[in-house]
């Protein structure tokens, strides 16, 4: 599994993307944001396939964690990545180390 398997990721609260990152160009950022608008708010995991990529979402406690991966990465690696991001942010925001704020508030 190469370093180019996971190509874009974001964390959102509701439908507002709080932080995102990619080193690649493509329409996957807009597709991922469009899918975010249509996800149910309930805690769950979702994966959508499009144009050789998987759009993987973990929705929990009002936050949505997303990673776009190449289709060959499967589902297990992207979902494990999302769990680690969620755990890191949950642990560090609970301890006051990070402050996630909505810049629009």
Automatic annotation (TrEMBL):
CDD domains linked to this entry: Longin (cd14824)
GO terms under biological process: protein transport
Keyword Chloroplast in record: no
Pfam families in the cross-refs: Longin
Recorded topology in the membrane: Single-pass type IV membrane protein
Signal sequence extent: none
A cellular component term, taken from the record's GO annotations: cytoplasm
Keywords noted in UniProt: Membrane, Protein transport, Transmembrane, Transmembrane helix, Transport
InterPro entries, alphabetized: Longin-like_dom_sf (IPR011012), Longin_dom (IPR010908), Synaptobrevin-like_transport (IPR051097)
Compartment list: Endomembrane system
PROSITE patterns for the chain: LONGIN
Major localisation: membrane
Organism superkingdom: Eukaryota
Domain Longin, chain residue ranges per copy: 10-105
Family according to the record: Belongs to the synaptobrevin family.
Function: Involved in the targeting and/or fusion of transport vesicles to their target membrane.
Protein's UniProt name: Vesicle-associated membrane protein
Organism the protein comes from: Sesamum angolense
